[in-house]
Structure formats: structure tokens, C-alpha cells
């Protein structure tokens, strides 16, 4: 199962979809491999530590958040604020970097350099606060026995990184790095896993018989098609390799909950409900595929 990034509302939608499937009798959290990126990394860790129904209940409840807190939280590759400025500023910065980059590796290096510069000028306490925030969202801080992969990118080198329980990195730190901006672990610093290839990183599922991809951003990407990073390209490659692939994107009626509004926490209940309704509808079709 591949859980893509998509900010706060994307995380809520992921919880909703899987809870909807679960309510309809299909538990996809028993996947042999769960791949999580950014907000999807949070969801991956959440689903390995709690029942989908238990995760859904609090997500459907609106929780007031001070405006100042929403404005100062950081942003990852999918608009998921982790440690930076407004989502619109971040997306514009990313567009400029992509336009100047020669290829994906160059883009990752450039983005890492920007992240390091911003981090150098930021409050050192930001990382500690971000880690505490991530920790508060996870039902368990221990890596599960089942296989979970959390994506990130090394900010110093631009190299793609995949954390798992054998990496020697705490689960909380792995999730924080996947949705962070120059998040430090040991001697390394990391940026959002969406910079590895895209918000889904579905290519990591190569070799698996069945692959279910949940993408809050609907597979959209800012990088040039010729870089070969788009979700559609990765899905084609998976199918060419013998995998059966199903994708779930938000319904068009719910698209306003994502994108530029991905960090509006007041929309989390609506996003979770939209995902839940969608999951229940898709359950019958997916049951044959999954089992």
C-alpha cells in the first residue's frame, strides 16, 4: 500500500478512505509493505499502531487552531507544513527550483541547499517542537514488525533516503524527516520525501503482486514529464513489471479540500468524511483485487 503526501487534509483523507474500507469489511492495513511519504508517512505510522476506526473518530472532530500557529508551521514538498513559510510561497519557490534544475537529482540538491539556508536562519527550537508534534500524532513510537518504508531526501547531498525499522532511526524521527525541511537526525539533515520522486513514491512497490496507491493530490506533480517522476509513469512501470495496480484519488467534489488549502486544519473533518464515504463506495470493487 502506497500512502501519498497531501498536507493536513491529505492525512485526514487517507485516514477516512482506509477507515471507510475497513467499515465495509476490507482491511488494507494488513499490506505486506506500507510506503509512506510526508503526510502519508504519518498515516503509515498511525495505521500500524491503531485501528482505522479509532483513528477516524478524532479526525472527524473539528479542533480550533490559533491562526498564528497555522501561519508559522513549516511546509514540505506537498504543502504539508513542517518547518517554513506559507504554502503558496513554498510552492512558488519549488516551481522556480524545478525550472532551474537540469534533472531530478539537481532539483533535490538545490532544494536541500535552500532548506539548509532557511534552517540556519531559523529558531533552533523549531525542530524540537516539530518532533513533539509528530510524536503526539502517532499511536506508537516503535517501528512495527510489518514492513514499513518512510521516504525522505538527504538535504546535504540530495540523495534519496528510505527509512525502515532496520535503519537505526526512531520511527518518530523518520516521520518527522519525511514531512520536514532540513530535519536533523544524527549528523544528517533531511527534507520531505516527496522530493525523492513525487508525493507517492510508488516505484518502491516494484515486484509486489498487488499495489494500492492512495494519492490525496490525485497523482499531480510539478516536475517535467520527461524526468519520469510522475505517478502515472510509475504506475505504468509497475504494471509493465507484472503488478496489478489500483489508485484512489479524491473525488472532484472534494478537490477544494486539498492543494493550496492542504494545511487548513479546519477542513480535516470534511476531508476525512469525504475519504470515508469514498472508501465505503470503493470497498466492494477493491475486495476482489486485494484478496
| Straight-line N-to-C gap | 13 Å
Instruction: Summarize the main sheet.
Output: 8 strands, mixed
User: Radius of gyration from the CA trace?
Assistant: 17 Å
Shape, please?
A: globular
Quaternary structure classification: single chain
Number of strands: 8
Order of helices and strands: EHEHHHHHHEEHEEEHEH
**Into which percentage range does the β-strand content fall?**
5-15%
From the helix content, strand content and strand pairing, which structural class follows? alpha/beta
Portion of residues within helices: 40-55%
Q: State mean pLDDT (0 to 100 scale).
A: 92
Low-confidence stretches: 67-75, 78-85
Keywords: Hydrolase, Lipid degradation, Lipid metabolism
Organism: Cryobacterium glucosi
Protein name: Patatin-like phospholipase family protein
Keywords for this entry:
291 residues, alpha/beta, eight-stranded mixed β-sheet, 10 helices, 43% helix, globular
Protein architecture, described:
Pfam families: Patatin. This is Patatin-like phospholipase family protein. A motif (GXSXG) lies at residues 36-40. Keywords: Hydrolase, Lipid degradation, Lipid metabolism. Residues 2-206 form the PNPLA domain. The chain is α/β, with parallel strands linked by helices. Helix 1 runs parallel beside helix 2 and helix 1 (7-23) packs across helix 10 (268-290). Strands 1, 2, 3, 4, 5, 6, 7 and 8 form an eight-stranded mixed beta sheet that branches. The protein has helices spanning 7-23, 39-47, 52-59, 67-72, 87-100, 104-120, 125-137, 171-178, 231-240, 268-290; strands at 2-3, 33-36, 147-154, 160-163, 181-185, 188-192, 210-214, 244-248. Helix content is 43%, strand content 13%. The radius of gyration is 17 Å and the shape is globular.
